Amino acid sequence: MGVIPENRVIVVAVTGASLAAVGIYAFNHFYRRYHYWNSEFKEVGNLKELFLYPIKSGKSMSVEWMDCLKNGGKFNENKDRHFLIVDEKAGHLFLTARQYPKVVLIESEVTNDILTVKIPNGNTVKINLKEVEARHDVRTGLLHFKQKQEGLDCGDEVGEFLENFLETKNKRRIRLLYFNSDLKTERNYISTSEYWKNPVPILPDYVCYLIHLKNN
Predict the structure, then answer these.
(1) Where does the sequence pass through the membrane (predicted)?
(2) How far is CA 146 from the centre of its chain?
């Protein structure tokens, strides 16, 4: 009967231990996923309306259906919060309705790769997103908590259009940034058990989807 050399015994033992560790990790991972998706769900209400916000903090778009993607909802060519209004003078600081309440009046919609931005008086500006992608003018926006978010600059015309509406001429240099999946973001949050069965709501800035109750 042959004898296995000591170094081979060590290699076999280490390999076996590694495979066992991988197996345990895989089992736990799939078990947790199975347990989550097969856990008890309770009906808490009926969904009445769906909204997207193509421009962050802009006016909502009422939609009939929505694809629920990893980074938010999508209706046809419209993706939720994929356009940001920023101030170039302040290091591309993200501007919201908290600073400029009129932002909530700005309508937006993407059709056939054309973004149409509309303000209450009926004036509009159209941006060809294919041309925006071709220019590939990448800017880095500064978000909540000093997080960074890359975006493609949508050009001078829409920037001046928004400056006039928000009345920020000579104060800020407004730019509209367009995010796509090829760009970098520091806004990738991973949900934890604290996100559910918790009487204290998580900050809305942390999540891709929000539910509002009509009677609350």
Answers:
(1) 6-27
(2) 16
* Token pair for 77: 């060519």
User: What is the residue type of 152?
Assistant: L
The string of pLDDT tens digits covering residues 19-30 is 666 667 777 777
Residues ≥6 apart with Cβ < 8 Å to 184? 148, 149, 150
The pTM score is: 0.76
Position 104, amino acid: V
- The helix (run of H) or strand (run of E) holding residue 110 is strand 107-111
The residue behind tokens 């231990």 is 17
Question: Which contiguous run of DSSP H or E holds residue 167?
Answer: none
Contact 152, 177 (CB under 8 A): yes
Distance CA 137, CA 135 (A): 6
Distance of CA 162 to the CA centre of its chain: 22
